[in-house]
Amino acid sequence: MNALEISPLVFAEIQRQLPDDAPLFPILRSLTWIESPSYNLGRASVLSQLQWNVAPRLLHLSLYFAESTSSTDGESSRNPVILERIMEAAAAFPRLEKLDIHMGCRPISLPADILRLFPAIQEAYLDCTMRDWESAAHDEQALLELPQNVTIRTLHLNWDDSDLEALASAVDLGAIECLSVARAPGRCCEPFLAALSVIGRYASTELVRIEVDSGLPSNTAPVPFNGALIAYAGPLRLCHNLSEVMITLPGHSLALTIVELLSLCRGWPDLALLRLDFHPASPDGIFDICQVVREVYKICPKLVSIHLPGLKTLGRPFFHLRGLPTSLPLLHLSSNIFYSEHNPIDIAFALHHAFHKLIAVGPVLCPDGSDWAMVSGLFHHLRVGDSVSATDFIGEKNLIGSGRYPFPLSVCLASFNMGLAVLLENYYYSASEERQPGADLSDMLRP
């Protein structure tokens, strides 16, 4: 049996029928507890009647407080009831390793010290506002008798103007390995971004994964300038074991120069996944794809996925990615903004040639007709070796002779019985020198 819904009244009755030393659920590992007016809230709770041996192997508890549990007296009268339920759960299940607290209504304040009730906790998902016990305005004198703080390895926080300083007094943030912070809808972005620097001050080399999400749709129009990313994320440079950094801020406009980007990367030499998803505040945040890939890989050779605010291809008449080892592990490359002065055929072919392990380019949701959509579609056909579909794609998108893009200097595709035939042009002209007749463009594409 994987899941079973039991009314609290039935639950209590079953427990009363069992001998005192018989566990009700001897092998239960995970329990979801839902509070609503139709059951317990506002009157005696079944949780208060439970003993730890009702489920001696329970490791994961999810507490859901339904939206309809809001009392008519407002937040201040409802909080003590919810706080009481959590304390009852801590008394009933002292061996919990994973705790989820979900608020179906608007997030309310809970004292951060309440986490110290669960000494064995390893992972927590908190959909509530964490405050220090004085500002929570509740009677939590019992919390003063608890141990100093708990060691949580994985923390998911649905941020709603939480006091991270108070959270740090209850939780050893320096021991966290995986941290996820999402902004509650409708909250101001500046305090949320400032929370990044607080996290950076308390985090340590134990942190290997951090995810920050503004909670806005990917197509949200950017708001006015929100400052420089380095001002918020700079303290995270001290977390040298970070392997995954995901800062997803649709609707935010942040400044980031290539110097600042490389400064961040130097603090994360083991980085495997880098996602900086926001609108660049200036042209300095749109990086030349050849330069940024080359410089970032000198610092972070383990990167398999890169998403940056903006990428561009400018300058050279012929687009290529030379000087990169063919063994680079890159699997995915994308950006919020992609500006190109080259034909998508050239870009797709160069990426396919330079990164042998690359399987996808461009954001997951590319607007149809955008430069990324063009490159992504053609790259897919190149990767799977489907020359017929690639040729059809070029025709449908008018990538040759439409006037929208320069004529592709790299390749023309044709269908043969075996694989993909590459028909190279005979002549190539650059700004500095004339290509000799008969020279092969394939020579220029070699790393």
Keywords:
447 residues; alpha/beta; 14-stranded parallel sheet; 18 strands; elongated; disordered C terminus
Structural overview:
- The chain has 447 residues and is of the alpha/beta class.
- The protein is 26% helix and 22% strand.
- It has eleven helices and 18 strands.
- It has helices spanning 8-17, 75-92, 164-170, 189-202, 229-233, 258-266, 289-299, 344-354, 371-384, 387-397, 441-445; strands at 30-35, 60-65, 98-103, 109-111, 123-127, 129-131, 154-159, 178-183, 209-213, 225-228, 244-255, 273-280, 286-288, 305-313, 332-340, 360-361, 413-415, 420-422.
- The strands form three sheets. Strands 1, 2, 3, 5, 7, 8, 9, 10, 11, 12, 13, 14, 15 and 16 form a 14-stranded parallel sheet that branches. A two-stranded parallel ribbon has the order 4-6.
- Helix 8 crosses helix 9 and helix 9 packs antiparallel against helix 10 (387-397).
- The longest helix is centred in the N-terminal third of the chain and has 18 residues, at 75-92.
- The radius of gyration is 28 Å and the shape is elongated.
- The model is unreliable at 40-44, 68-78, 135-139 and 411-447 (pLDDT under 50).
